[in-house]
Specification:
The protein is an alpha/beta fold. The chain has one domain. Helices cover 36% and strands 21% of the residues. It contains nine helices and ten strands. Strands 1, 3, 4, 6, 7, 8, 9 and 10 form an eight-stranded mixed beta sheet that branches. Strands 2-5 form a two-stranded antiparallel ribbon. β3 and β4 form a beta hairpin.
Length: 237
């Protein structure tokens, strides 16, 4: 079982885990990112980071190689990650997350949930001045992820932006959430996290098992199939 997630713009600071260890496909973008953020003025980076306070800019203007790290699933603090509530899970449920979750990143490409990363700033959709990260990761991630996802059941809960990084070549399931007949964004993030939490707490080993669970405040509307993609559509009560 593999669960694909998007990252979050908001992140927890600090950390107490091992120093940053990069996979081969992460070395180039991280090196270019480091060169850029350590060589530009605070004013330039203020625009690039999308931060108004120069004191905030200063926090991200240093190398990330020596910063304290946390597991990726602990570092991100957006709506979905709050719903997962990793810190409050049992050891067994945490191990489930560590083993099964893959988090896509605009800077790191893809991370396993227990990959340790520092706090950093790099907006979704941002590209490095000398590297189109979307194109780069699309080429680099395919052989890496094709091998990881081979023979796995796959639940794709990524935001649509990260489809550009990797097109899944195997059968997979995704989910859509409606409220009053309209697709919702904020609540979709929340329920993606809720579903991951249910899977972790119950050690779900197949998507068939998941479908047997009654998920609070969700009702099944429809299941759509198109080629290797199955979309489960829920209505938020």
């Amino acid at each position: 079982m593999k669960i694909l997630l998007a990252p979050a713009e908001t992140k927890k600071d600090g950390g107490n885990q091992t120093p940053l260890q990069l996979k081969e496909f992460q070395i180039k973008p991280i090196s270019l990112y480091e060169d850029y953020v350590t060589s530009r003025s605070q004013e330039e980076l203020s625009t690039w980071f999308g931060l108004k306070k120069l004191t905030e800019v200063q926090k991200y203007q240093t190398t990330i190689q020596d910063k304290p790290t946390l597991k990726a699933i602990q570092r991100y603090t957006g709506v979905a990650y709050e719903a997962i509530g990793y810190e409050k899970l049992t050891i067994q449920a945490k191990n489930y997350c560590d083993k099964n979750i893959l988090i896509f990143s605009n800077l790191f490409g893809v991370l396993k949930a227990d990959d340790c990363i520092p706090n950093y700033k790099f907006k979704q959709g941002q590209i490095l001045p000398t590297l189109d990260t979307i194109k780069y990761f699309k080429e680099c991630l395919k052989p890496y992820l094709d091998e990881i996802l081979k023979d796995q059941e796959i639940l794709d809960l990524r935001a649509g932006f990260y489809d550009k990084f990797y097109k899944i070549p195997y059968p997979y399931i995704t989910m859509k959430f409606l409220k009053d007949g309209k697709v919702v964004s904020h609540w979709a993030k929340h329920y993606r996290g809720e579903i991951v939490k249910i899977m972790a707490k119950n050690n779900i080993s197949s998507l068939g098992e998941l479908m047997n669970f009654n998920i609070s405040n969700l009702s099944l509307v429809e299941i759509q199939k198109q080629k290797n993609k199955t979309t489960i559509i829920y209505n938020i009560k």
